[in-house]
Amino acid sequence: MQFIRSQKIVSKFLTCAALIFTVTSVNATIITFGDNNVDRLDLAGVQSENDFSYSAFGDGWELQDVFGNPGASLTTFFNRQGGDVGDEITFFNNNGDLFSFGSVDWRTINDSGTNDFVIFQGFLGGALVDSLVLDGANENFTNIAGFGGALDQLTLTITRDGRNALLIDNLNLTTVKVPESSMAMLFLIGLVTLLRRKF
After folding, report:
1. pLDDT tens digits for 71-121?
2. Per the confidence metrics, is the pTM higher than 0.70?
3. Which residues are the signal sequence here (predicted)?
């Protein structure tokens, strides 16, 4: 009888611990890129929208409001200003919180197959978590799923200069909260105390 009761207590304790240490998602943010036209994002500096910011490296990224879904979209190039392979744009949380990449809308100017290709790469502490490649042609905005895992940086890089724009809009980034280290310490103290008393 004593063993069964101890087993139930340990089971409840572990269930509570699982709830405490579960990473929770909060603050889903859709990056819409507003209604802005920014010819070269690399010259414009850091751009902010809600809890996130982004900055570009290389002349291959800009915002334009002609083909957004709706409003402006992030494009690999426009008005015949080409981007180069390796040009990138990086997204990060303004508060330093971790986040996840839920989904994105994308399309190309036409379906000729001459469009740019882009790779999405999610990083945590400099280590690659996952990646997603947009390497097709699609004349209508299509929503595709991102990838799981907590990130501290999402980088989009041009991998093919096809001389035809690829457009990105409605980037879904969700802040995730992780348990504090003080909660882990309290859990361990409680577990040790319970084990000493019951076993």
Report:
1. 899 999 866 566 689 999 999 999 999 999 999 999 998 888 788 999 999
2. yes
3. 1-28
Give the chain's end-to-end CA distance (angstroms, integer).
Answer: 14
Task: Assess contact for 101 and 147: CB atoms under 8 A.
Answer: yes
Question: How many Cα atoms sit within 13 Å of 148 on the Cβ side?
Answer: 2
| CATH number of the domain to which 62 belongs | 2.60.120.430
If asked whether residues 84 and 18 sit together in one domain, one would say no
**Full residue range of the structural domain in which residue 96 is found:** 24-178
Are 6 and 51 in a shared domain? Answer: no
User: In which residue are the tokens 């991998």 written?
Assistant: 159
> How far apart, in whole angstroms, are the C-alpha atoms of residue 30 and residue 182?
32
Q: Which string of DSSP letters, residue by residue, matches 69-121? A: SSS-EEES-BTTB---TT-EEEEEETT--EEEEEEEEEEES-SSS---EEEEE
Instruction: Give strand pairing partners of 128.
Output: 123
On whether both 18 and 29 belong to a single domain, the answer is: no
Residue 172: pLDDT band by 50, 70, 90 thresholds?
very high
Provide the pLDDT for residue 161: 87
User: Same domain for 139 and 199?
Assistant: no
* CA angle (186 as vertex; 181, 188 as ends), nearest 5: 95
